Structure formats: structure tokens, C-alpha cells
């Protein structure tokens, strides 16, 4: 990370680094989580993201580097799930639709911010093409929706009525309970006109 940012400074390159809802921790306000607030994550994943955010902001303010960063929520796509905390929302489409059953590793009430991949890519494209003069920050929250496993599964059952859901929470439940429930991305909407297209029903 240090070497890449240093090279971007030397060669006057723009640099984008993705961040995440995991950059927040149990001391952060969760509903909603504003763009600027206490973070203090409890996972090395989150700690590394905060480190990247702060390092990029330092290089921007100290050396004028055009550093940009988006904090993404859980991203839902057709790619196979990787086992992350928000990946139940991907796994249920792969496993549940194939076998008509799914065992969720989070409690049914666990609310987390989410985004469909098309909105994710749209936000990235729009952000990177925004003139730097319009950006009041270098790091922005972006999101599209926020739901619980139960809410997602109930929506799926409208299309797959025989879908059987069970719950067996594991260690990812502890992580989820330290993350934002609702992401406040009003600054992205204000500064560079971010608008999402997909909500839970459109998934």
C-alpha cells in the first residue's frame, strides 16, 4: 500500500482504493453510520481498510495526490460467494435456488447495508469521473439498501415458495453486530450526484 501510493505521488497518478462497511466497529453509530465518525474496527480486514483511507487522505492533503476511496456495503452479484460476513445474500441465490434450502450463518434480524453489482460499478464509474474540484471528501460511503436475512428470504419466497430457510449463527454474527446497519451516503449524493437503481424488490 505504501509503495503504491508513493509511486502514485511520484508519477502524478490518480489512485482509487476500495473500502468497506468493515472499516467501522462496535463504537461507531450503526443506524445510520455517517461518513465521518469514530471507526475503530475489530477485525484486521477493517483495520487495514482504515489504514488505507488515512494514508490516502494524508497523501492528498500533504502532497496533493488525487486519492479517492469508496466504502462499499455488501455487494450482491452472480459471482460465487467467498465466505464473507455479507455473503449470505449471495449464497442463498446459489445454494437456495439450486437445492430449495439454505442454512444462514447470521441471525434473522441482522440488518446490514447492501448493493447490487450494477449499482456498485455505476457508483465507481461516476465517482472516478467526477471533477476533483467537486469532491469535498476523499472517502465516501455508498449504499443502495439495507435489509435483514429474514427480509431477503421473505422476498425470495415470493418467487421460490418452497424455499426452506434455517439459521445456524457462527463467528460472523459477532462481526456483523459491530458493523453499520444503515449506511448514510448523503454526502456522496450531495457532492457527486450518486443515485442507486436497485432496491430489495428489484434484486
TrEMBL record:
One Pfam assignment: Epimerase
One BP annotation, GO: L-threonine catabolic process
InterPro entries listed in its UniProt record: Epimerase_deHydtase, NAD(P)-bd_dom_sf, NAD(P)_epim/dehydratase
Superkingdom assignment: Eukaryota
UniProt domain NAD-dependent epimerase/dehydratase: residue ranges: 3-142
Gene3D superfamilies: NAD(P)-binding Rossmann-like Domain (3.40.50.720)
Any GO MF annotation of the entry: L-threonine 3-dehydrogenase activity
UniProt family annotation: Belongs to the NAD(P)-dependent epimerase/dehydratase family.
Record's protein name: L-threonine 3-dehydrogenase, mitochondrial-like
Amino acid at each position: 500500500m505504501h509503495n503504491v501510493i508513493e509511486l502514485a505521488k511520484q508519477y502524478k497518478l490518480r489512485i482509487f482504493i476500495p473500502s468497506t462497511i468493515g472499516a467501522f466497529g462496535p463504537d461507531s453509530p450503526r443506524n445510520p453510520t455517517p461518513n465521518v465518525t469514530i471507526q475503530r474496527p475489530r477485525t484486521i480486514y477493517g483495520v487495514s481498510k482504515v489504514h488505507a483511507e488515512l494514508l490516502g487522505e494524508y497523501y492528498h492533503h500533504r502532497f496533493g495526490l488525487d486519492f479517492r476511496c469508496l466504502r462499499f456495503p455488501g455487494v450482491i452479484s452472480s459471482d460465487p460467494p467467498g465466505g464473507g460476513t455479507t455473503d449470505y445474500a449471495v449464497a442463498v441465490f446459489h445454494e437456495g435456488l439450486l437445492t430449495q434450502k439454505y442454512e444462514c450463518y447470521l441471525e434473522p434480524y441482522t440488518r446490514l447495508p447492501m448493493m447490487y453489482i450494477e449499482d456498485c460499478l455505476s457508483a465507481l464509474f461516476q465517482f472516478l469521473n467526477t471533477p476533483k474540484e467537486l469532491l469535498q471528501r476523499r472517502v465516501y460511503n455508498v449504499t443502495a439498501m439495507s435489509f435483514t436475512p429474514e427480509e431477503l428470504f421473505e422476498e425470495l419466497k415470493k418467487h421460490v415458495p418452497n424455499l426452506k430457510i434455517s439459521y445456524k449463527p457462527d463467528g460472523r454474527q459477532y462481526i456483523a453486530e459491530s458493523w453499520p446497519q444503515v449506511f448514510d451516503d448523503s454526502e456522496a449524493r450531495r457532492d457527486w450526484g450518486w443515485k442507486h437503481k436497485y432496491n430489495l424488490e428489484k434484486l
